[in-house]
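Before the break, one more example. Copy the sequence into your notebook; we will annotate it together after we see the structure.
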Amino acid sequence: MPERDSGSANQTPLVEARNLVKHFPLASNSLAGSKATVKAVNGISFSIFPGETLGMVGESGCGKSTAGRLLIRLIEPTSGSILYRGRDITGDSGEKLRGLRKKMQIIFQDPYSSLDPRMSIESIIAEPLSIHTALKSRERKEKVTELLAQVGLPSQYASRYPHELSGGQRQRVGIARALSIGPEFLVCDEPVSALDVSVQSQTLNLLRELQSKFQLTSLFIAHGLNVVKYISNRICVMYLGTIVELALAEELHRNAIHPYTKALISAIPDTNIDTVKKRIILEGDVPSPTRMPGGCPFHTRCPSCMDRCKEEQPVLAEKSPHHYAACHLY
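Here is what the structure looks like once it is written out:
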């Protein structure tokens, strides 16, 4: 199992995925009645250690969001297991699962659809408190005011409704709601992708401050490697439901191994106009997750594809100290 660094070998992960698989069957679309299956996540394994932020990056449809929702049991895995503080929680239900909700929360991607338009901001943030705590009405109001202040919103916003707020303000409400019951683990599912560029940096800085203040452990999901690098300790690169590379954030940007990771890094804009940067252009389209290619999932677009890549799927293995990749080139 990939570790965080040389000091984490003896540390118990807070959250761990082991051979996690999630397939979604589709409705029959033929007279013969055959059903296709979307293979969203295909046997991924990784650990997230206490106090760490693991970044997860990849193109749309690679399985990032599915992996995050699997970890907090919002959806059920097809196979594999999820461990929380060393305990298998894959089969938890009822009161056990309810207890987990206090420890594991999520910030959704879309601040518009994730907030109930019929509820006031106070009701939205206070709802988890009324479900998971024994706080009285007055105490919940005080807690809501405190949470609004922590995410940089004035107390008078408590009486407003989502449609009266901007996108950045709505996302701050979503962050306050996720933090309301003091979780240990937070899944940030592309929390800045739906925001204006001018607001993204403010939201990222807020998340960094809150993670440091509350010692949160996080899975941060995003499209852009530059965004993920800014907030993460380690970065996990996904392609077609598999992990193709995993390393410390600085190491990944300095010494990427997998051809897909190199292509993603080459696409990051450079603010230095004097720098001549060669862009790696990937040819072809991402294969359909209902018709996965044999061998390495990336071989249909890889500029360094060999015959072996078409037949044998590479295993995620340590290529250099604490740097893992799934590639036959190394």
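The chain has one domain: 15-103+183-325. The radius of gyration is 21 Å. Try to locate both features in your own notes.
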